[in-house]
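Attaching the record inline, Q. Sequence:
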Amino acid sequence: MRKSVKAVALVLATVMLTACGSKADTNQTNDTAVSAQPQKTEERATVEQSASDAQEAVPETNDTLTFGTNAEFPPFEYVASSGVIDQYDGIDMAIAKNIAEANGMTAAIENMEFDSLLIALQNGQIDAAIAGMTVTEDRKEEADFSTTYYTATQVMIVKEDSDIASAADMADKKICVIQGYTGEICVKNLGYPYEAFKKGTDAIMELVNGKCDVVVIDSATAQKYVLDNQGLKIVEDASAFESEEYAIAVKKGNTELLDKINKAIETMLADGTVAEISAQYIETISAE
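Structure, as predicted:
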């Protein structure tokens, strides 16, 4: 009996100790959970703040429309002391500025060699190319083109005493063209040998200095060069040189940008803005 009582007492004592231990452990666990909660709140706040800062650090949608050009083709694009886009001026530059502004953007210019323009488009160096660029089947394989904004033709610049009266008369003459321009394509198609220059001014200097007989180039640009250099004249031959269409090139498949450019061009054609810009620059060079 005494042993039984002792056994019962021992069991009771064990139960009480176990219960106390469980309570203490539970309290300790709860204390730990409570003390950890503020830390998690602080971590969450830090993460949320970092996310907010990152969101603020993300730049806004690009609001610059970068056009590539070859600023050697007056009156369409050339360098001036004060142009419509930085130091760049001309018909194309004014059109580019209007297109950008119509889409709530700012126009920027990358000046480069004409032959590099479509490559720069493909590489993403520029968004669009505007450089008195004629739409041809070959170029359409490399880029997508906008609505036509200007129609031009090729002409011949010769000295005033030249006997060249038609394209056929160039057969035995020394011909100069500008590399990559439509004039080069036309002369090549005629089957005549020629020398290509990277700048229109260099080709004209060859003619002025008597080192070549004729320069084949766009009609509006020819007018500018003839006005700037005494002793030169323009010879036309509609049977040899067909009219050509100028348009803006964008990277193939960039339909979003092409649609924006087309909408702006169509608006400017409809309201007379393109005609007004063209007349302004052509009248300017005629008055010089």
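The mean pLDDT is 84. The radius of gyration is 37 Å.

More tomorrow.
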